[in-house]
């Protein structure tokens, strides 16, 4: 059996997340993820790799969470 080559420190990491991983990353339920897909235009749209395989780009999920946190912080500053 061939041994895999070791990757250098520039590893790609997780590029795509399934619905369970998205829900866990956002600390929400799976049904809430699907509700956000339908109702929130700012939530990242899923990529359908096949009719039954759906993934989200990890970078887009992280960016969405950061944008929500930034909006929350701006709202808190305006209230003061």
Description:
The protein has 80 residues and is of the alpha+beta class. Helix content is 50%, strand content 14%. It is built from 3 helices and 3 strands. The chain has a 3-stranded antiparallel sheet with strand order 1-3-2. A hairpin with a 2-residue loop joins β2 and β3. α1 crosses α2. It is extended, with a radius of gyration of 17 Å. 6% of the residues are buried. The mean pLDDT is 87.
Which SSEs are present, and which pair or pack?
Elements: E1 16-17, H1 19-26, H2 30-39, E2 47-50, E3 53-57, H3 58-79
Antiparallel strand pairs: 1-3, 2-3
Helix pairs in contact: 1-2
Give the total of beta strands. 3
Could you say which overall geometry the principal axes of the C-alpha atoms support? Answer: extended
Strand order of the largest sheet: 1-3-2
As a whole number of angstroms, the C-alpha radius of gyration is 17 Å
**How far is the N terminus from the C terminus?**
64 Å
Oligomer: single chain
How would you state the average pLDDT, rounded? 87
- H/E element sequence: EHHEEH
Specify the structural class.
alpha+beta
Low-confidence stretches: none
Strand content bin: 5-15%
Helix content: 40-55%
Q: Count helical runs.
A: 3
* Largest β sheet strand count, sense and barrel closure: 3 strands, antiparallel
Features:
80 residues, extended, 50% helix, alpha+beta
Can you describe this structure in just a few lines?
The protein has helices at 19-26, 30-39, 58-79, and strands at 16-17, 47-50, 53-57. The protein has 80 residues and is an alpha+beta fold. Helix 1 (19-26) crosses helix 2 (30-39).
